[in-house]
Amino acid sequence: MLGKVLDGRYKILKRLGSGGFGETYVAEDLKIVGISRQCVVKLLKPSSNDPNVLREAKVLFASEAETLAKLGREHNQIPELLAYFEASQEFYIVQELVEGKPLNVEISDKKRLSETEVIEILKDLLGVLNFVHKNQVIHRDIKPSNLMRRQKDSKMVLIDFGAVKQIQSIIVNSRGQTTFSRVIGTPGYMPNEQQGGKPRYNSDIYALGITAIEALTGLSPYQLQEDPDTGEVLWKGKTPVSKKLETILDKMVRSHFKDRYQTADEVLKDLEKFGKKTAWKLPGFRQFVKPLYILPVLAIIAILGATFTVTKLLEPTKNTATQSSDNPTKTPEKQPDSFETWLERGKTLYKAEKYEEAIAAFEEALKFKPDSFEAWNGKAKSLFYLKKYSDAVVAFNEAVHINSDFEAWNLRGVALSRLNKEPEAIDSYNKALEINANDPIALNNKGVSLYSLEKYDQALEAFDKATSIKLDYPEAWNGKAFVLFQLKQYDKAVASFDKVIELTKDNSEAWYNRGYALYKLEKYNDAITSFEKAYGINPSYAEAWNGKGEALYQLQKYKESLAAFDEAVRLKSDFQKAKTNQALARQRLN
Predict the structure, then answer these.
(1) Annotated catalytic residue: which of 29, 109, 141, 204?
(2) Whole-prediction pTM
(3) Which residue segments constitute the domains of the chain, with CATH numbers given?
């Protein structure tokens, strides 16, 4: 198999693994120019060459591959499906290669993970599972080796979905009917109902719970005993663990599915309660807040469908000096080496965007007056602009302990969001909103963080309030549109994008996003008009050409759709989705 070229483009480089359900290889895409040429190829072989088996396998393979494609398009912690095809009565899927380390290797390296590490893994993966289950998909094979910690951002990626493997277990029974010969899953990680061939959504929750127990204890499920009377897993006492986490894990791995958590969201809610920190109760202090802006939001249409993403976040402008809140009774005479001299020097350097020097000056000021809000806040903001967000949060903490200041709480939230600590960012925005409940900027920031956590109803509430307070706030209208899209309220999303377009000039992204919402409403002609507006404003907007091509494809105008995909690829030579769409359009024309 090594060195073989599949489908005229995927050259097999090395074998990753094999098992009862197929073989996995790393391949090179010979038609891609650039650094992202490697991908994963999975080979799935039907159990026999019986015509009934092959016919059923083809139907099942196409259906499950389309499902995988949709999941990969719409969630960045699921590998993207790049292609799927059949050759010589064998089936292949081509997926994004995730660079990173599987959880089983991480557990082996560390022997066991800390409670904090396990909680973070659970939170990360439960969010992915929540998305998967809402799309009516059961993974069926959750275990440490199918959970990959991505190198670039340390996020957990869910790989190797089980459903597509079913094509290898199709058989023909004595009556000539097709059925499945094997249960999909791995012994030890499968609950009873899955072993009986009837998996449920919370079968995945059981498997994730067993995985968490393995990470905590360093013991595989084969090393754990079961209670002979109840069938429950006996794992407690194998490692020190808090009572709260113990209770959550116990409920995740209940033997009977009725006693288990029913949804991933239920587990997440209990984990969030567990992780809640006591809010700081500090005296109120109001200070001028500088305006923030939100970065342009782009949506990326994928293979005959689309991925809708919202950018992170919100960065303050850099033109306002730190205001005084140390409230001296009179302006003291400035000495060459004094608090006032260093503080003013810090402010001047901050205005000049010389942030390293500003920090040094504020630190000198703090030697004279360690409880100066101005100096801590100035240092924090300077660190923020140097993108030293962790250090900025530490400095903001000092500032708000001295004075509970609106701007400091708000910018602390932005820094936390930059660190992907959205729950803590929301807590910070809430402290700012306790000072000014009607500030549209803090409401907008809170909405973006809630969106990132997929808490769409709460995000919508924040964006709604922001737009009601400030009608001409395009960033909040944009956030509202994205939330409405995720809630599948596509008509309302279009109306919100219309508002963004009304408030901003030549906004190609808004036209593009509007086109995608219209696409979801199956208003393909209107979507085409929007995509044309987008690339009319930005002629190099390859994604807009791709979007137009997809809408034309849905109208069965395959020749015109191919022309649009061709233009997308001309503008962006490494645009894999458009290249795949090209192939699909050509296939239709042939």
Answers:
(1) 141
(2) 0.48
(3) 5-96 (3.30.200.20), 100-166+178-275 (1.10.510.10), 284-335+400-589 (1.25.40.10)
